[in-house]
Amino acid sequence: MSQASLGPGGSRRLLKRLRDLMAGDVTGQERLNQTVRIIAADMVAEVCSIYMARPGDVLELFATEGLKQEAVHKTRLAIGEGLVGDIAAHAHPLALADAQSHPNFAYKPETGEEIFHSLMGVPILRGGRVLGVLVVQNRSFREYDEEEIEALQTIAMVLAELAASDVLFGSTETAIETATQLPQRLDGIKLNEGLAIGRVVLHQPRITIRQMVAEDPASERVRLDAAVEGMHSAIDDLLQRADLGHAGEHREILETYRMFAEDRGWLGRIVEAINTGLTAEAAVQRVQDDTRARMNQVTDPYLRERLSDLEDLANRLLRHLTGDRTAAQTGTLKPDAVLVARNMGPAELLDYDRSQLRALVLEEGSPTAHVAIVARALGLPMVGRVKDLLSHAAPDEAIIVDGEHGAVVLRPSEDEREAFTIAIDARLARQAQYAQIRDLPAMTRDGVGIELLINAGLLIDLSHLESTGATGVGLYRTEIPFMVRSTFPDVPTQVEFYREVYARSGDRPVVFRTLDVGGDKRLPYLEVAEDENPAMGWRAIRIALDRPMLLRQQLRALLKASSGRRLDVMFPMIADVSEFDAALDLLARERARLARRGEAPPSEIKVGTMLEVPALFWQMPALLERVDFISVGSNDLMQFLFACDRGSTRLSGRYDVLSPSALSFLNRIAQSCTRRQVTLTLCGEMAGRPLEAMALIGLGFRRLSMSPSAIGPVKAMLRSLDASEVAAFLDTLLDLPDRALRSRLAAFARDRDIAV
Ligand code: PEP
Ligand code: MG
To answer: Which of the residues are catalytic?
Structure first.
């Protein structure tokens, strides 16, 4: 039985009444009481109630028209409990003609609600967060229609905005105030170490909507059309600016944007919201809030990604409507900024003023993501995969970023701040110690010299040569500049780039690794078919040998750039000697070409290989005859040795690089190289961890290449180490059946005061 119909015109009338009420003198509870009264009257409902979320995941009845007044501030429901709790838990509307027969119905006797049969409730949402629930009830078995649900959602959205700006509750205690003041710890994964405390800056900040209610829907629709038009041409512009650094990388995302931007369903929902009386920007926000709430329910990563795209698009549209710009666009980043985002590309991070940035936190992200590589190069603490980050963090809130443990604390308490300040001070003190030993020799107590080198991939990494006192670059990942471009860089561009690397490295040697693309490192302009197992698929030298011009051009550029100085170059993912020979052959051709053209060659050329595929070890005698040096890529070597995906969070920690098998393998590699006096380096992540580095020295490694921040700790460790003693100790361990030798090595270090 349908009651008076509440068309779009009715909804607009109601919004105007609410606006008048908010502008009036009444405040606090009385304002809430009048709000529910107006809504009940307008919706022809006997009951209208507002439940607000309270700390501890409960909903409290804040105001009601129609239920017993003594229940106000007494009736409480856990999120998920009863129909109201269900609406909050799933952030979705419910409309039931016979609510009491619903399995989730929870009877609250103090409210006197047993006489009301039908119920319609919608979540009060803001920024994807459920702030409360708005409910209407009728005695009759009323069938609420779509339009009525839509109208109630619009009202709920207006209430959310009013609640957030304190207009609804006045200055009295509010649910939102209490909830947002509570500290909250959110766990993620460590993407770059370091600790920081600062204030939240949203990479895509929430846009302030100055006017929610519109007088004339027709003109709002015109504004929407104009904004959609503006957004389309901005996206098309981005797509066309192929030479723009990050456009190539984001091309796919932009294509998806365009697809969504033309999605009639999405725009249709925005128009519907305008028709209920909202301004164009408020309508976009309403649809965005729904999307965010739905996103929290979706677990499928692909769908989440799509919904997130839609959210980004809504943000763009809002900016076109309001003219707001991001902090990166305006260049007005506040000091102590902790950047918070769902995800971002490396170029976007570089858009910000580094001097103001303290840390970066993402809802997504992975250790091998390019933005993480850039964050590391910038020395920016970074935490990723923080679930629901954006629904919890509000702009300007205090935030602690714990890059050591992969966690953040929002709105930290005094105690937490203090504990953190102590941790930051301790870290600074350690860094001061490392700075003190910077110019001292990297030599063990028994006089064994160890060469400490840095891994680099961006020009900014090279500044760390000076600050760490490293002797050179042990691994230059040349693929990184290729990844952030939209087209393949031609030879002159590459020459210029490599020359710049040399210029910034001074006299220190740099080992260039030729392109290691494929796997998770995609080039936007290189078609790579999806392998089922990309790390073991068409990548690195496999691509280079199948598409020899790529490698030849790179070698050509490296030879030219090294004119008059020594060139150190190595090839990634060599699995057998014939691949190394084939790569060497391409190098020989390029050398011949250079000579034919009478161009000045490098003063010396040293050619090596990465040892990342276990099979290569079994051709060691043939390999050692050919190479000038070998660099063990333990990241890949271990993933293939244990058949264990290096990026899998589920498997991380399952196998240990300090296991007898891994260490025995590394020991054999070191012995072979030492016998033939072939230079050996290890450039995987393990080189940068003091305990692991201690073991490597014990196994005979004398060159370690690592991320710049690891140089200090590793140097402090080795200067307190006796190399022959750890070698002898390891000798007694390698045949043990243990899963890992980690605790034995840690005890060894502890007993001898070795700084691990
Ligand atoms: C490695 O595999 O250990 C390595 C250094 O190479 P990347 O991490 O670039 O694969
Ligand atoms: Mg590798």
So the answer is: 370, 683
